[in-house]
Amino acid sequence: MRTVVLLVKNGIGYGHLRRAVLLAEAVRRAGRLRPVIVSQATTLDLLKDRTVQVVNLPLLQRVPSDVLEDAYTVLLERLLTRLDPAIVIEDTYPDPRYLSLSALAGRPRLLVMRRLDGESFDKLRATGRLAAYDRILVAQRPEEFHDEGHSADALAAVLHSGKFAFVGNLSHEVDRDAVAAVGRRYAPTGAPLVVVNGGAGGDQLADGYGDRLFAAATSVADRLRRSDHSAHFVLVTGPYYAGRMLQEAPNVTVRSFEPQLAELLAAAHVAIIKPGNNVLSETLQGGAHAIMVPDASFLEGLDGHARRTAGRYGGTVAPADPDVLERLVSQALDELPRNCRLRPNRSGIAKAVATVESLAQTPSGRVRERQMLLVLRPGPRWTPTMVHELLPDGASGPTVLGLADGDGPVAVSGPRLASSRKAIALLLDGTRPDVAPEALAGQGVRVLITSSSEEGTQVRRWLRRSPPTVSQTVVPATRLVAAPGQFERLSRQLAQVIESAEPSCAVVDLSEHQEKDALSLTLRELCVWLAEQPVELVGPSVLDARYVQRLLEAA
Amino acid sequence: MTGFGLRTVATYQVRRADADIDKVVELISALLADGVQLIDLRRYDDLGTYFEVRANPKDCP
Residue A462: exposed, middle, or buried by beta-carbon count in 10 A (0-12, 13-18, 19+)? Predict the structure, then answer.
């Protein structure tokens, strides 16, 4: 059985490791690959009693000597060579250290990416960090991804490069059978539970977030106890908590780590949490009223996410202020449990496992033929259908401008869309579109084909003045004229186009053909010649994906 | 035995010959092949001159 290696780091939070364990256990259950987690984790809490194998290193950037770091790096290199993984999986933040390991060169790579704020995503994208992956699974639903406020280039890259897929949020599923027992463990008398958690407790900016959160929660607990409220507080600090020592009280239990935190949150009536991805997801699976206390975070933008979550699932966003929290907790304790709950995303896990297994089957590398979008422009004498019918039987690849066959969308339209509403590419032909870019995008147009550098400059300026939500692709094309009886000349011109750019685009004008027989001969010669060349004719969607993939490369 | 039942099975002196790393990899590979679930290499000395190989004897299901 081939091995799949999950490379994951866990410095101040649990999220990456937790997701890696979740995916690794799902891969193991499927039974076709053997997962091994190679982690850099500071704590092993989450790795206890797991069903997958783990080799854990320290955080390599924090070891005390260069020689030790070198030794670990060599060990990592040789261990990965020995494991010979069929696929390598990383989580959210591409690590340059892994990119430089020769043991990983040429292996299929998958990145599982939980939510990032727009600015952070663009930083990774524009520095080329995402380009090395064969597939990237976004652990969000498409509408949630859109809500993050991503740039037009980021949206184009995610939606049209062919590298990304949305699998929805990947988080631990609450064990419903264990919820009541966990609740009784902390509140044997059935008192309502208020659970407080800030993730693993790591402080992103060392500004005392954990200290403020738990101090405020302790104060609220004290006030409620004095007013004889029966609520019981459970403070799960996380192993990285570095704030003041927390004292237990008759209505306060303090834990550093709770292996069944998801079930505890599900048993709670109120959850006061830092809205990191995992804890928030687990909270939303239960009926607890979520009081989200966002703060500085690494590339997550928690404030906006907390507000959006409150709008979607209920709950409130609050500062770590005991006066505010006391009011919110008291109100929430008087209310019935929250009804709008997050459903477990089993199909997302299944899709992720299927992607892993599919990538593990990646065949040997092959050199792709040069790709070209070849657009045949009929001219006034011929209709697109007539040109299409004159193409030899079985000829596929040349795209006839304006062709509207009954089966599928029109591939390329002329400068106006009136006659072909489903075109995904527009041949501008020296004429700027008469609608705004966003309106054009709304009609499904992804690709704008220009035929001179001056026109390309004008179009880019037009797009900058009124940028669409999702970046459109501007493709330079070479215009050629096919004259009757002069195919050799045309073939030499086409060869130059194909060799000058990869992928390339050519628009061949057929209007000089007056006779049907002559046009038929030219098209036949064209198709025979193309079949002999190392070129693959592609449609505008493929061309779009190739151009969009450049948005993932370092500028 | 340490936390989670981890026990030290080897130590690696960083300044030794590079070839020793292969022995550590051999050891880790053998532990994995034996079904050991958790192998931890994160314990080292303050000066960064050696690290330990610790393992959890628990079998994988």
Answer: middle
Residue A228 Cα, gap to closest chain B Cα (Å):
40
Q: Which residues pair with A370 in a beta bridge?
A: A535
**Interface contact B38-A82, CB threshold 8 A:** no
Query: Is pLDDT of A343 > 90?
Result: no
Q: What is the CA radius of gyration of chain B?
A: 12
Q: Would you say how long chain A is, in residues?
A: 555
Cβ-defined contact of B47 to A78 (cutoff 8 Å): no
Q: Residues A174, A141: contact at Cβ < 8 Å?
A: no
Q: Residue A410 — very low, low, confident or very high, per pLDDT cuts 50/70/90?
A: very low
For testing the chain B interface, which of A79, A80, A101, A256 should be mutated: the one with the most B CBs within 10 Å? A79
**A53 CB within 8 Å of a chain B CB:** yes
Hunting for tokens 């949206």 — which residue is that?
A155
**pLDDT given at position A16:** 87
The nearest CA of chain B is from the CA of A203 a distance in Å of 21
CB contact under 8 A, B18 and A74: yes
Q: How far is B52 from chain A (nearest CA, A)?
A: 10
Nearest to residue A45, comparing CAs of A67, A64, A17, A70?
Answer: A17
A130 SS3 class: coil
How far does A62 lie from chain B, in Å, by closest CA?
Answer: 11
With CA atoms as reference, the chain B residue closest to A52 would be: B37
Which amino acid is located at A44 in the chain?
Answer: L
Q: Is A481 exposed, middle or buried (0-12, 13-18, 19+ CB in 10 A)?
A: middle
Short-list B44, B42, B54, B56, CA closest to B14: B44
How far apart are the C-alpha atoms of A305 and A307, rounded to whole Å? 5
Q: Which of B4, B28, B60 sits opposite A55 (nearest CB)?
A: B28
Q: Tell me, yes or no, if B27 comes closer than 8 A to chain A by beta carbon.
A: no
Report CB contact under 8 Å: B42, A64: no
Model pLDDT for residues A510-545, shown as the tens digit of each residue:
999 999 999 999 999 999 999 999 999 998 899 999
State the distance between the two ends of chain B, measured CA to CA, in whole angstroms: 22
Contacts of B47 in chain A (CB under 8 A): 64-65
Contacts with B28 from chain A: Cβ below 8 Å = 55, 79
Residues in CB range of A141: below 8 A, 6 or more apart: A166, A168, A169
Q: How many Å apart are CA B14 and CA B17, to the nearest integer? A: 8
User: Do A269 and A231 form a contact (C-beta atoms < 8 A)?
Assistant: yes
Task: For residue A178, give the 3-state DSSP assignment.
Answer: helix
ipTM of the complex: 0.92
DSSP string, A533-547: SSEEE--HHHHHHHH
Tokens read off for B17: 């010959």
Handedness of CA A525, A530, A531, A534 (dihedral sign): positive
Q: Report if pTM > 0.95.
A: no
